[in-house]
Write a structure and sequence with these properties.
Blueprint (H helix, E strand, L loop, with lengths): L3 H6 L6 H23 L15 H21 L9 H8 L14 H19 L5 H4 L2 H19 L6 H21 L6 H25 L5 H12 L1 H24 L2
Helix pairs in contact: 2-3, 3-5, 3-8, 5-10, 7-8, 7-9, 9-10, 9-11
Length: about 260
């Protein structure tokens, strides 16, 4: 495969797809944005405003996460290209590329299955299971907090911070208001989403650190990210099922 990154950034082994996937994602995001705001294709409940429709909000999550990925891996707020890989390596004490040992394809395994497959799949089936359709918001809030904590600790910008503050936080707070506080879902569902995001990030970072200590192979590291991406579907489904079962038991005890 042609090494486009060699031409732009010197002697590295980044492939064309390593560099171009966030641009592809940006194009997909723009198409979804048109469908979201110019059509009713992605809506489920036509009796309410689209901004309050869980199915519509599920697709909005896919779109805004692709925009966030572009800031991280495409062009960041200050114009740097493909900046997040070096940022992650630096924060984990692994040095910048080419010294950083994290395999280049790791970033593909983290991002593409999560957003392009599992998040899109859950949004597609949101009409059947609206809460699971909101699973990507678990990563939206945990990722936003990670960017903000790093920025506060370092007193500096990091790739992805702008979209985390300007897009991620408001979208999550709006979701909490219209889907949980106003009663469509149980408020405990917010905790399920937050816990899901925390678990996903713990698995991600711990697997990288274990790999850096040469305890697992690069192939296993990549496979873990593929499985980890499914947590945005599996954990919300299990968590909300648990909440429903607990509510049913409480209703039975109360004689309802």
């Amino acid at each position: 495969m042609k090494k486009l990154f060699d031409l732009a950034f010197g002697n590295t082994t980044w492939t064309w797809f390593d560099i171009m996937w966030p641009w592809i994602g940006l194009g997909i995001a723009l198409v979804i944005l048109i469908l979201l705001f110019a059509t009713n294709i992605l809506r489920r409940d036509m009796q309410i405003n689209r901004w309050r429709d869980p199915a519509w909000l599920s697709w909005l999550a896919v779109t805004i996460y692709m925009l966030h990925q572009f800031e991280e891996y495409g062009v960041d707020f200050f114009g740097s290209r493909h900046a997040f890989p070096d940022e992650l390596c630096k924060r984990l004490g692994l040095g910048n590329y080419p010294a950083c040992p994290i395999p280049h394809e790791f970033f593909l395994y983290v991002n593409i299955p999560l957003v392009w497959f599992f998040a899109a799949l859950s949004a597609k089936f949101s009409p059947k299971n609206p809460f699971v359709g909101l699973g990507l918001y678990s990563v939206i809030i945990s990722n936003a907090m990670a960017h903000i904590v790093v920025a506060i600790a370092t007193q500096a910008y990091n790739p992805g911070l702008f979209s985390a503050v300007v897009i991620f936080l408001p979208s999550f707070f709006w979701l909490c208001k219209v889907c949980f506080i106003e009663g469509r879902f149980r408020k405990a569902g917010i905790a399920v989403l937050i816990a899901t995001g925390i678990i996903l990030h713990i698995i991600l970072i711990s697997s990288v650190l274990i790999f850096a200590k040469q305890k697992i192979s690069g192939s296993l590291l990549d496979f873990i990210q593929l499985i980890n991406a499914s947590t945005i579907v599996v954990l919300p489904w299990l968590g909300y099922k648990f909440l429903n079962n607990r509510q049913q038991k409480q209703n039975i005890k109360s004689g309802l």
